[in-house]
Amino acid sequence: MAVICCRLGRDGSGRGPQHGAGRAYVFEDGATGWPQVAELAGSGTATGDLFGGSVTVSGGTAVVSAYHGNDASRAYVFQESG
Q: What pLDDT, on the 0 to 100 scale, is given for residue 11?
């Protein structure tokens, strides 16, 4: 089993939520807890895009949304590998 959590506005820069595009993190059930196994980011996302505003998972596929300001919102599809 896996769980996906999002941090809206985070981008790894450490500058705070208003400075980032957002990230989604994948955690997998393990013998000693829930280690992070992946970090997801949208291509072409920018400050304030709210990547991770909505997430759905089916099997090994995750769909993560991003708002993109005045542009059309987008959905990013990630497929589990391996």
A: 53
What total of structural domains would you count in the chain?
Answer: 1
Q: Model's pTM, two decimal places?
A: 0.75
Straight-line distance from the first to the last Cα atom of the chain, in angstroms, rounded to the nearest whole number: 15
The DSSP line for 10-76 is --SSSS-GGG---EEEEEE-BTTB--EEEEE--TT--TT--TTSSEEEETTEEEEEE--TTSPPEEE
**Cα–Cα distance list, 48 to 23, 27, 57, 74 (Å):** 12, 24, 23, 13
Question: pLDDT tens across 32-61, in order?
Answer: 999 998 888 888 777 778 888 889 999 889
